[in-house]
Design a protein that fits this description.
15 strands; 7-stranded mixed β-sheet; Rossmann fold; Dna Ligase, domain 1; 391 residues; 4-stranded parallel β-sheet; alpha/beta; disordered C terminus; 15 helices; D-amino Acid Aminotransferase, Chain A, domain 1
Length: 391
């Protein structure tokens, strides 16, 4: 078997971007997932497709199968997780997996703090990183009605647990009755929640700072990008992103990464609060983010840097990148346009022209057509005709 294999874990659009970034660089890429129809499995750059037991519902079996795979190759493959639950799984079984694989993720204590958003925000405050006004909900919560100014946003302390339970990022709470209703729902589902003020402003006020640190905490890669649009419109995932360098934003992101002693790849989302002109922390995700292929097109190949660092290649730091590289998730962005159009935040011609400025895509690629076709065939079943939606 070939040496120096990259095994990408989670093969939705996040993993697809990683597979393409590595495969185009000549790396032998394998894909591992417990969802057998995820689009990354259809990429021509995915040389071996591995269906694994779920790391969520059957972690022991998943560990067992990964160890079997690791024993079959002469050189330890590099694991590249692209979902929170995979990072948590690698951290939990780090001792066992390190015998057969190489990977670079945050130290367990740091990861525990990042995964728990309450601890993440508390750490940010200690470092002087601005955050939205935040309340932590539990059995001993001392929140009074006059403390809250509606609307507010309720979300989970554990983002991946919340998402797998409710299928969204959180609930918009408009009054005290809704607060009681949603709080009771979270308690019934055994989910610890937090509530935050909603920072006013459009989608384009959202930004990401992305970085990769080796195990000696040296910064090897840096990138920042702006959300032009997202879906769902107010609390969602970027659907149209534009690479953009904002120095004071980058400075703030690196202050947080380095203040907590971060290692591995991560992305921090901020939102510009126009009321005080401060960037405020939304969340840090300890993994390769959905739009990682945009950084590759901008000259910073995070998956390759991660891979080469793990196999011991000495690397210099890549701290500059090309601006105005535009990433598009066509189906999600169409739905984002509908929502923004109804709110009056975007005009049809403005949106339509922006599509033709796209440099890279969540699923489509001329040299790797099948994932885009599979995603379009699935996604179009759930889209209504534009004239039915824009009326």
């Amino acid at each position: 078997m070939k040496e120096n294999i990259g095994l990408v874990l989670n093969l939705d659009s996040n993993g697809l971007g990683v597979i393409r970034s590595l495969g185009r660089a000549g790396i032998d890429v394998w894909g591992g997932d417990f969802i057998p129809k995820n689009v990354g499995l259809y990429s021509r750059f995915c040389k071996k497709k591995i269906i694994l037991p779920s790391p969520l519902s059957n972690p022991d079996k998943c560990l067992e199968k990964l160890i079997i795979i690791g024993k079959e190759v002469s050189t330890k493959p590099v694991l590249l997780p692209t979902a929170d639950y995979w990072v948590i799984f690698l951290s939990k079984y780090q001792t066992e997996l390190s015998n057969y694989f190489r990977f670079n993720i945050p130290e367990s204590g740091i990861l525990d703090t990042i995964v728990d958003k309450a601890k993440q925000y508390q750490w940010a405050e200690k470092l002087g990183i601005p955050i939205p006004k935040t309340y932590y909900l539990n059995e001993d919560s001392d929140i009074h009605e006059n403390d809250l100014t509606y609307p507010i946003f309720m979300k989970g302390r554990s983002g991946h647990k919340w998402a797998t339970t409710f299928g969204n990022k959180g609930f918009v709470v408009n009054n005290s009755d809704e607060f009681s209703k949603y709080y009771e729902i979270t308690r019934k589902n055994n989910i610890d929640a937090i509530v935050q003020e909603i920072i006013p402003g459009p989608n384009k006020n959202h930004y990401k700072v992305c970085a990769y640190y080796n195990k000696n905490k040296k910064l090897l890669a840096l990138f920042s990008t702006q959300k032009a649009r997202q879906y769902p419109v107010d609390f969602g995932v970027g659907s149209y992103m534009i690479s953009k360098r904002v120095d004071n934003l980058i400075e703030l992101g690196l202050k947080f990464f380095e203040g907590i002693g971060y290692t591995g790849v991560g992305s921090i989302e901020f939102k510009l609060d126009e009321r005080d002109n401060q960037f405020k922390l939304i969340e840090l995700n300890p993994r390769l983010w959905q739009q990682n292929i945009q950084a590759t097109y901008s000259g910073v190949n995070f998956p390759l840097i991660n891979f080469l660092d793990c196999i011991g290649v000495e690397l210099g730091s890549i701290l500059n990148f090309k601006e105005n590289v535009r990433w598009l998730d066509a189906i999600q962005d169409f739905q984002s346009f509908i929502g923004n159009y109804k709110k009056g935040d975007v005009k049809f011609f403005e949106w339509f022209i922006s599509l033709f400025k796209s440099n890279c895509f969540a699923y489509f690629a001329w040299d790797d057509l099948l994932p885009g076709w599979k995603n379009s065939n699935f996604g179009l079943k759930y889209l209504k005709l534009p004239y039915k939606l824009i009326k």
